[in-house]
Amino acid sequence: MSVEFDLSATMAPPMRAEGLPPAAYTDPAFLAREIEGIFHKSWVSAGRAELYPNPGDYRAMTVGGAPVVIVRGKNGVLRAFANTCRHRGMKLVEGSGTCRALKCPYHGWVYGLDGALKGAPHMEETEGFDRGDYGLVPVRIAERDGFVFVCLDPTAMPFDEWWGNYSDIIEPWSPGDLRIARTVELDVACNWKLFVEVFMEYYHLPDVHGQSLATVGYEAPDPCDPSTGQVVTQFGTHPNKAALLGGDIGNDLPNIPELSGRLAGGTRYSLVYPNTPLALSVDSFWFFEVEPLGVDRCRATYHNGFHKSAFEHPEFEIRAAAYFRRWDTAIAEDMAILARQQQGLTSPLARAGRFSHLEGIVPMFGRWVAERVGGKPDPAIVAAE
Ligand code: FES
Ligand SMILES: [Fe+2]
Asked: Which residue of 16, 206, 279, 332 is surrounded by the most CB atoms within 10 Å?
């Protein structure tokens, strides 16, 4: 790519770093580099296994714009494929649902749940055509602790390496027993990185959520835990439930049963790079799949859930609605701020800024991005590290 971006100031240690330059949030050339260097090379979230409970359950998604379909096979195996017909490239399925086979709406080619081309009408005069050569293109998929990830790049690092020691870190939240209760698709008027950033910092809480989340009483978070994977993660305490508005205190669902001690009074905020921000709290969890839809627009697929035992609570519906109120209120506050931040960054007079220690993960994320889009660190900074 011909355009050059000077990202060296972003690649300094967090308390010395500048943010990514405004062009990183506004320039289509930068986004093109992210699609190629990040989205098409990383493990990205495809939700959780419970979104696909039965054979034939499928869900379409995009990974850096590339259509992908996740589908559970007849034998129970979860698979992912390019959601692109091998005949003339039609997108096969949209949304989610249950099917017996994947049928192309254009000329009716039919693929089994294992991706094999099962039927291709009127192809008998086509010379040397062998259906066995035209199965769906497979996409790598991995499931860990109930979370499902896909990766378009067959040569990218194995998922185990990407995830690193994160299973050990989140084990107290019994992630295998968590269940999504609701998924909401949000169309957000900002660059995908702004959405990730607001989720990972405490600095904005008093100004943006000062009314709505005041009762939570967020305390300054712990330093990040050492991660061996492509994950940054941090625990912090708060005296009241983080996922309930003040008026709903007492309307809560039971705590995750295995949590104890200090962990039963806080929330672990993590970012599984590049685009899966995840919160594990006392009694609930919430996470996003953030997908760019342009430099100034992204789709955030928002999953909200609880421990499986909470679904048995006699007042589950009413109480879950209180959590949904909190999640909807806070995200609306964030989305309004993010749209304005995008407008500010779009000015030719915008400049990169500096960071508070309460938002230290933002420059870490900036550096992670910079390293994958060709950023070159300042050699003097590297020598000093
Ligand atoms: S493009 Fe799918 S059957 Fe023709
Ligand atoms: Fe926020």
From this structure: 279
Residues with Cβ within 8 Å of residue 55, at least 6 apart in sequence: 72, 73, 74, 75, 76, 113
Distance CA 70, CA 304 (A): 20
The CA distance from 336 to 369, in Å, is 24
Residue to probe by mutation, ligand 1, list 84, 87, 91, 110, most atoms within 8 Å of CB: 87
State mean pLDDT over 356-371: 96
Give the pLDDT confidence of 14-54 residue by residue, as tens digits: 999 999 999 999 999 999 999 999 999 999 999 999 999 99
Distance 126 CA to ligand 1 centre (A): 15
Question: From atom 3 of ligand 1, which residue's Cα is the shortest distance away?
Answer: 107
Domains, the chain, with CATH or none: 8-39+166-372 (3.90.380.10), 44-155 (2.102.10.10)
